[in-house]
Write a structure and sequence with these properties.
The complex is a heterodimer.
Chain A: H1 4-31, H2 36-59, H3 68-89, H4 98-129, H5 140-162, H6 166-175, H7 185-189, H8 194-207, H9 212-243, H10 245-269
Helix pairs in contact in A: 1-3, 2-3, 2-10, 3-4, 4-9, 4-10, 5-6, 5-9, 6-8, 8-9
Chain B: H1 23-30, H2 33-36, H3 49-56, E1 57-62, E2 67-69, E3 77-89, H4 109-118, E4 137-140, E5 148-151, H5 154-160, E6 163-166, E7 171-172, H6 174-179, E8 186-199, H7 200-209, H8 211-231, H9 241-250, E9 252-256, H10 261-267, H11 273-278, E10 282-284, E11 292-307, E12 310-317, E13 322-323, H12 325-339, E14 361-374, H13 375-382, H14 388-394, H15 410-414, H16 424-432, E15 441-445, H17 454-462, E16 470-476, E17 479-483, E18 502-504, E19 511-513, H18 523-527, E20 534-537, E21 556-559, H19 572-576, E22 582-585, H20 590-597
Antiparallel strand pairs in B: 1-8, 2-8, 3-6, 3-7, 3-8, 4-5, 9-14, 10-14, 11-12, 11-13, 11-14, 15-17, 15-22, 16-17, 18-19, 20-21
Helix pairs in contact in B: 3-7, 7-8, 8-9, 9-13
Amino acid sequence: MITFARRRWRNGVLTVAAGVGLIAWHAAYDVSLYQPAYLTGWLLLVLVLFLALYNGRKKLSMVPLGTAAAWLQWHIYLGFLAVLIFAMHVQWSIPNGMLERILALFFVAVAGSGLIGLYISRRYARMLTRQTEEVVLERIPRFIAELRAQAEAVVLESAVDTGSSSIADYYSSHLADFFAGPRNMWLHLQGSRRASFALMADLDVMMRYLDDKEMVYADRMRHLVERKDQLDYAHALQSVLKGWLFVHIPATYGMILLALVHLLLVYAFGSAR
Amino acid sequence: MVEAVTIQRPRRWDSPFSDQMGNAEVERVLSLELFRDMDRDRFPDTLSLAGIISNDTRVVNFQDGDIVMREGDYGNSAFLVIQGQVRVVLPPGLSETMLGRAPTAKKSLMQAVAQLWRNPPYAEVRDSYATVGGQGTASRADGDPQARIFLQDVPAVLNEHRTATIGPGDMFGEIAALGRTQRTATVISDGPSELLEIRWQGLRDIRRRVDDFRKHVDRLYRERSLASHLQATPMFQHLDEDAISHIVDETLFETYGDFDWHTQYQRSRDKSFAQRLAGEPVIVAEGDYPDGLLLVRAGFARVSQIINNGNQTLRYIGRGAVFGMAEIIHNWRQDHADREPTNSTGEEHSPVAETMPLQATLRALGYVDILRVPTTVIEKYVLPTLSQEELSQYGLLDRPLAGTKEPENDRHAKAPTIEPTIEPGMLEFLVEHRYINGTATMLVDMDRCVRCDECVTACARAHDNNPRFNRHGRRHDHYMVANACMHCMDPVCMIGCPTGAIHRASPGGQVVINDSTCIGCATCANSCPYDNIRMVEVRDGQGMLIRDTVTNAPIIKATKCDLCLDQLGGPACQRACPHDALKRADMQDLPDLGKWLNR
């Protein structure tokens, strides 16, 4: 079984070698007075179509078409090559036509979201492992609602039991919004715990002015805040882990559509041969 | 004040094997030769011999051609012939179709793709429960509570296959019943026969208390299976029949732990590590003299070494593994060296070294059957026939795992060692939770898992939109063992299935459930120590619950992972994971597991 480091090294070397070969071929084509844009254009289109097939492979999990992991490896490294071919195709500059510029923007969106997706797939998966318990993204809103109900029960109980509104007041001024839904997404994505520290610090301040009876309820509330913060963390990371595909895949379809229009126009009005 | 609900504590014989065993029948059985001379005083009042016969046995009648037991099935009982005779089909045995086991049909490419749109929109939809018969067999109920499968053309079968006859007073099926292993042969009734079926609990209790009975069972095993078991062990493979026969005569049988270990394991889950370890019977202890080579016949054992005030697990061993060979080889070599005053170069040997005791402790994990071949027998018949390479290979000592202090012992430093590839914590985790039992344990590397649930989606697509596992489970470090059927080496879920619906598929040995014959009793789900079997309410094509015609209660079925037996390309979950995060691991293949964990 090949290690990840070895596989990365092998695939990286092969991709660089293929890239160097492509550059050399492109240069040779150029000096032979052919129009290399046609070569790179067709190559790019075929490559993009192949890369797009990966999504189809995921849907056809019941057919023995090779493992999804092997497809992803091809997807990643051929994706790098596609970026190189794209750069050669546009001659390392910004295209001049409107359609071409939009098409280029779509390509940048697809390639950029792919790179970001690759990065967060590797980084956020590890960050999520820090959590002690696994939570399914779709169930998080339900868990948050349960926590909110528990927090509100603590508030009511404390008011009845202690005859004081300290915790209730604190809840409505500081925590009601926090428990209303997923919060602090950007801070969690950056790996920052500033928001939860701030909440805990506020709770600590409030707890200084409570008696022993109220302290019991404050401790329960504190525990609920910690659990809610963990859910927010899981929600933020898992949302992005799934969400980036909502940019990558539609942009891919848009790009393919525009590329076909571009191809049609080139052959209709260009000096192609 | 609300009064506590009280129930009578459940007792062992609340559910007797049969309700047909009246006093007269029990007395008739007790008068059989096997039981007649048994000393009944050896049995306590609460577990009398008559009680065992009454509750743990039943008299069953077979007609000509009835299949009493099938090769490859997992049986929970042994049989004693009372009247008539039965035929044991000798190797190569009957074909799978003759035995009524049609091979699992794989879906065609079109059928596989059609799952995209043909899968029902509701959960757990069942089309029908039509029974499909196999070639060469049919089933017979005859009003008998025990439905029979019988061969349709017995003379043809007897003509084409070699058979051995077992007559009145003979017993068979005890090996699979006591060792929870597969039936090694098919037995068919030759004419009408009357048999006494003894379930394993009764067999075990009689065996414990009656020496003659234990010797009788051991003798049967010695006569029927021990030689072939030894010959399947690499270090005995090259021995001639004479040597094997001597070893067979000298081999001792030992049993450790509880046969129904899963109930004890479930109860002890919340105890501390030290308490659970203390509950594991010690087979041999570190520092003991190696008086025999231990062969694991069935079950699992933990190999551990004392580290500070605790025990560190070095590895686990299962069926077919040996323990203690390295120490025996070392001592034998030492003994030989001591007898020769000088070596070939004329130099004198160093002073006599001490006998090497066992370097590790062996504990039973659940239930273990051990064969102990005395050291003197190994020294006489095995060691002289092994090459230097084989002696070096079998002489590898267990050593502490990486990250722990090694004892200052020259022998450890000089001897070749087994290089561990699984970090100690992971090994302890796998053993603690008995995940070592799995042949297709679902491991998920959470550092690579992006929680995309492609595995769950693929599983659902392959099973009529019903995922057959939960991407959830215990974790160690960044590895999770998901709640998916592990297709255990020792599938305790099969114990007690009243209809045999949960069974091993051939030829892969995957544990599968026959949905048509599952009665939804949940015995398997309750027995599974890993909570990997789910009971579900089934629906018709319109999404309506299917109900019992009498009670109107919903029909319940047991469901679990079937390792995508009918799918092209194997387990969909593993193939669908884009990030190489998921593996169905055979926990007996430690090198492969180690490589995967250390990617």
